[in-house]
Amino acid sequence: MEIIPTNEVCLLKNIPFCINYQDIILFDNIQAQQNYFNSQPKINIENVTYVRNNGSIKVAYNREAILDYNYMSFKNSNYGNKTFYAFITDIQYINPNTSMIFFSIDEWQTWCFDLTFKPCFIERKHCKRWNSDGTPVINTINEGLDYGSEYIVKGHEQYNNNLYWLCFVSSVYMPTTDTEIKDVPTILSTYYLPIYKSTNNIINTGTINVNGISGNLANPNEVLRAFSETDLVNKLASCFIVSEAPFEYSYSVSGNQLNITITGNGGMTQLAGHADLGYFAIFYGDNVPARINHSFTKYNNLKNHVTESKLLMYPYSYVQLLDGQGNNFIIKPEYLNDSAINITTYTSAGLNSKQAHVVENYRQENVTLSACRWELQNGIINSMPNNLTIVDDYTATYLQGNSNTIQTNISNTQAQANLNNTIAQNNSTANIQSSVLNAISSIGNGAIASGTMGGSPVTGGITGGIQGLANVGSTLIQGENYVKNTELQGNLTTEKTIASAMAKLQDAEQVADNVSLQGGDVYFTYQNQFSGYCLVYKQISDEYIKVLEDYFKKYGYKVNSLEIPNLHTRQSWDYIRTNECNVVASINATSLEKIRTIFNNGVTIWHTTDVGNYNLSNNEI
Q1: Is the dihedral of CA 586, 589, 592, 596 positive or negative?
Q2: pLDDT digits (tens, 9 = 90+) for 91-147
Q3: DSSP string spanning 60-91?
Q4: CA triple 416-421-426, angle to 5 deg
Q5: What is the pLDDT of residue 441?
Q6: Environment class of residue 93 by beta-carbon count within 10 Å: exposed (0-12), middle (13-18) or buried (19+)?
Q7: Contact at 8 Å (CB) between 246 and 191?
Q8: Beta-bridge mates of residue 344
C-alpha cells in the first residue's frame, strides 16, 4: 500500500525489535505505546519533503548523522491523527545535507489495537505449568524433541519389610482348616512360617498370636527335616518362599524373637501328628486372600530443580515398578489419578507363589473397578517359582508304590508251592492205593491160573502176592520221591521270588534321593533380599534437562488446540504459533494478511521493553 508521510516524522533509535517479526511488544494501550516511543532517543522532523513513492522519504540530514536510527513513526493527513510505525530498512546518501530513508510499515505496532482474534488452531504457546497444589498441569502432546538415549535414576523406593514367609503345601490333613482354598477344592493343606531376615541376621523363632491365643512358632529347619526323615516323607507337595502371606498380620522383632499377630482371615495350627514342632500360620479357606496396600511418593526426586512441568511427564520422566525377577511395569505419573503411587499386592494360597502388584487408579477416570481383572494390566504378575528344593526318599517311594505287588507275588508263589505239595501227596496216596489193589488182584489171578493148569492154587497165590508186593513197594518209593521233589521245587521258587524282591529293594536303597522343585531362583532372591518390589524414578540426563528447559522456557509447549489466543499469560513474554490464524480488523487486506503470517510463523510477544532478555522472571499471571 502507498503511505505518504507528511508533516510529522520521528526517527527513533535503539528500538529492540526488527522487521522479521520474531519479537514484538504488546503494550497495554495506545497511551502506553506512545509513552514508550516518546521516551526513546529521537529526531522530530517537520515539513518533510517527500517523494510520492511507497516506502521512502527525503530528510535534510547527513546520512552519517542518522545512520544509527532503526525505526520511525509518522502521521499522514489522509488518516487524520493515525500514527504509523515503520522499520527503517536503509538510508542512502543523496548529498551532504540530504538522505533518502527507506522504510517498511510495522504492521503490528500500527494495527495491533484494531485487531480482533477469533478461535484459532494454536500449535504452540506458553501454558499454565503448575496447579495451585504444586502438581504439574498435564500436557502429554509429543514435542518431537531429542531428549537423549539414556535415563538417570533420580530416586528409589522399595517395599521389603525383611519378613518372608516359608510356605509348606502338604498332603498331611490339617483338621483346623477347610478342604478348599477359597472355592477351589483341594486335598492339600497349606502352612506358613515367618522368617525375619536382615542383612546380617536371620530370626526364625518366636511366637504366634491369634485372637489372644499364643504359641511358639515352628522352626523351619525342623519342619523341613521332619518332611524328609519321618513318616512325613513324600508328603510335601510344594515348598516356596514369598514376601506376602494370604492373610493380614502385624509383627515385631525383639532381640532374637519374632512375634507375629495374625488378623483377618488367618489363624494358627500344628502339623498333624507332629505337635512337637510348634505352631504354623494358616490361611482359612473360606476367605479371599489378603490384599496388601502400600503407598509411595509420586515424584520422589524428579521435581528437584525442575521448573518446566512437562519434564515430569513421559518420555522425560517415568517410574519403573520392578520385582527383582525380571518383571517390570512403566508408570507414567501423568496418568495416575492419585497424589501418590498406591500399590496393591494380590496374594494367593496354593501350590504356586503367584502374586500381582497393581498400581491403583492408573489410566482410569470416574470408574469404580472394585478389583476388576482389568486392573492386572496396570502392574506386574510374578509367576516365577521361588521354590525350595524338596528331597524325595526313593526307597520309601518304591516301597509305597510297590509293596503290595511285592507281597502279592511272594504270597502267590507260596500258595502255588503249597498247592503243588498237596497235589503231589494226593497223587502219591492214590498210586499206593492202586498198587495195593493190584497186589491183591495179582494173588487171586495167580491162584486161578495154577489151578487151571493142574498146579497148586496156593503156590500160584504166593507167586502172585510176591509180584504184587513188589509193585506196591516200587510205587511207594516213587511217590515219596515225587513229593520231596515237589516240595524242593516249591521252596526254590519261593526263595527266588523273595530274593528278587529283596534285590529290587536293595537297588532302590542305593539310588540317591530325588531332588525336585529346583526351577526357582529362591536362593538368589532370598540371600540377596530381592524379594518384594521397588519403584525406580528415572529421568533424562541433566544435560538434556537444561536444553529442554531452555527451549520450553522460550517457546512454551505444544498444545494443538482450537481456542482464542491469549496474548498475555506470563510476566515478561508469551510465545504463540498458530495454524491459519483467524484474526479480523477494519484495515487493508495486505496488512491483515501480514499480521496473520506473523502468528502463523510463530512470534514472541513481549510485555516488557527489555526484548530478548530471557533471564527475566516469566511466571504465570
Answers
A1: positive
A2: 999 999 999 999 999 999 999 999 999 999 999 999 999 999 999 999 999 999 999
A3: SS-GGGSTTEEEEEEE-GGGTTPEEEEEEEEE
A4: 125
A5: 67
A6: exposed
A7: no
A8: 293, 358
